[in-house]
TrEMBL record:
Protein name, per record: Carboxy-terminal processing protease
Region (Disordered): 395-432
PANTHER family: CARBOXY-TERMINAL PROCESSING PROTEASE CTPA, TAIL-SPECIFIC PROTEASE
Domain PDZ: 89-157
Organism of provenance: Azoarcus sp. (strain BH72)
Keywords recorded for this protein, A-Z: Hydrolase, Protease, Serine protease
Amino acid sequence: MGSKLKQFGLVMTGVVAGVMISLNFSANADKAALAPLPVEELRAFADVFNAIKQGYVEPVEDKKLVTHAISGMLSGLDPHSAYLDAEAFKDLQVGTQGEFGGLGIEVGMEDGFVKVVSPIEDTPAYRAGVKAGDLIVKLDDTPVKGMNLNDAVKRMRGKPKTDITLTIMRKGESRPIVLTLTREVIKVQSVKSKVIEPGYGYVRVAQFQENTGASLVQHLDKLSKEGQLKGLVLDLRNDPGGLLNGAVGVAAAFLPPEAQVVSTDGRTEDAKRQYRATPEDYLRGSRDDYLKALPRGIKDVPMVVLVNGGSASASEIVAGALQDHKRAVVMGTQTFGKGSVQTILPLNGNTAIKLTTARYYTPSGRSIQAKGIEPDIVVEEGANGSARRVREADLQGHLGNDRDPEAERKLQATKNGEHKPGEDDDEAQPRFEIAGKDDNQLAQAINLLKGLQIVQNKK
């Protein structure tokens, strides 16, 4: 037995070394990353592996055990690192193009359950009334407890026109909510626009995809042709993020050339970068600079950026950049607070890992991680406040904020019971229609733009 375990430990050492090479770790990485492999820990792994192979009630394939080990190793780091099998990797690639099959929910894990971060607009989940913060405890008749996130997502996705029943626990509800949803091909329209009233345009970015920057330019051109713009609202509410280059492109549409949009910092040299309003940083695989087609005067139009607790990641990059450069007034409520960068590292067999490799920072050096963007002007969703939303700081195992000790102190106080949840949380409000007649935040944004126009005319 000892000989077998020793042999297996050597094999596992080789496997881990091979994985490190396949992930192309930088030679300039932190010395801790290049330290000798932890032989004792690998022996413990070998012991567990062998115990399962010898004594588990049913035979288990080696590949399944190793896959689960990799998945657990990544998911234990933070809520955003994950192992992507061939199907999940393909879904991710398709999703960045703006079309995939499923229900239309951005999700994470919390205490073993699937937690809704944000339902995507115009999808089965959104229309059925799924809300941010909902805990999905059952998928059809299968309990979610014990599933990993990828398995849960797989079950929710499927062929269009097929049904799935979600059992949901919601704060404030004494009984589970049971919803039967019909899967659809989810086509996320990245950018929408309209004229609110003569001279005042509205552009909404629902998600950052490959074509978001180019689509934004088309919508701005359309708005400009309907009359001279006196003010513009950029709506990033409930935008869960997406591709970094899409965010840089959107910010670059309103910032001077070469202006810094965001910086990233991690342990490897590749993770230490600055992204600026230059074609090299917002174009990917394309030679056509779509920003050359921007209508004249767009970079000078008075702007308001709308955000809320559902604005995450890439949308926080845009809001933070425009705020730091004083290009726009940020209005709404505090954003989600996802200030970490995930890198997709392909493996053999069309699989990959999604690994958190850096934090990102606004041009002034602020870290958004577990804190979010604080609006210049706080405006609630309705007269009685805003709906309480799950944020990055609520996610189990989230990264801390490395540049704001006060934010971390408040977070720890909450965890230690010094601050009782609900003491200054917004009461839940009925969901309103974004850009609809009862959209209080949009109405206040237009009022502010009119005031800015008056001041500008006086000058």
